[in-house]
Amino acid sequence: MEQRFEQIYAEHCEAVRAYVRRRAPEPVVDDVVSETFVVCLRKIDRVPAEPLPWLYAVARKTLANERRKRAPITPSELRLVVEPEPVGDGVLAAAFNRLSEKDREVLRLVAWEGLSLTDAATVLGCSGVACRVRYHRAKSRLASRLEPAASSSPKPKEVTR
Q1: How do residues 59-76 score in pLDDT, each as one tens digit?
Q2: How far apart are the C-alpha atoms of 131 and 125, rounded to whole Å?
Q3: I need a labelling partner for 86 at 20 to 30 A (CA). Which of 19, 33, 98, 99 fits?
Q4: What's the alpha-carbon Rg for the chain, to the nearest Å?
């Protein structure tokens, strides 16, 4: 049991830390990661064979609890949480940030965390079918927010010789 926990921790600690870091202010990252692995140790006999999606689900719930605990925060503390942006593409970042949190989360899980839709469903606590629908709708909404930006961007000039 202890050996399995140590293996899970060694293999997945950095992935869980990165997951939390992309979703929470730096001062709470260590606490959330620690609590995630405390839950893992307590429930080691119920941790699935592929633990990463399960660990993300625990981290997600731990983050939600942390947000509720810190609910009465000041506006200056709110600025500590900065939405990560796709590197080099301000148009994509702006469109992404206009999506709902539910849409952003399913896209993050698949695109940033590299999870399959089945594993993303585990993290989100929904069925595989529900996750597929949520993902498809989120991609459609992102595409619809990108279309106006694409049509308003300057057209490339034709080069004549």
Answers
A1: 999 999 988 887 765 555
A2: 9
A3: 33
A4: 19
Tell me the residue length of the chain.
161
* Side chain identity at residue 56, one-letter code: Y
Number of other residues whose CB lies within 10 A of the CB of residue 135: 20
Q: Is 115 helix (H, G, I), strand (E, B) or coil?
A: coil
Host H or E run for residue 94: helix 90-97
Amino acid letter, residue 73: I
Q: Determine the CATH number of domain 1-70.
A: 1.10.1740.10
pLDDT at position 2 over 50: yes
The CA distances from residue 22 to 43, 84, 96, 151, in Å, are: 25, 7, 14, 31
Tell me the pLDDT tens digit for each residue of 89-130: 688 888 998 999 999 999 999 999 999 999 999 999 999 999
| Neighbouring C-beta atoms of residue 100, cutoff 10 Å | 9
| Spatial distance between the Cα atoms of 83 and 117, rounded to a whole number of angstroms | 22
Structure tokens at 34: 């620690």
Residue 9 · residue 47 · CB < 8 Å: no
Domain boundaries, the chain: 1-70, 87-152
Q: Which amino acid is at 23?
A: R
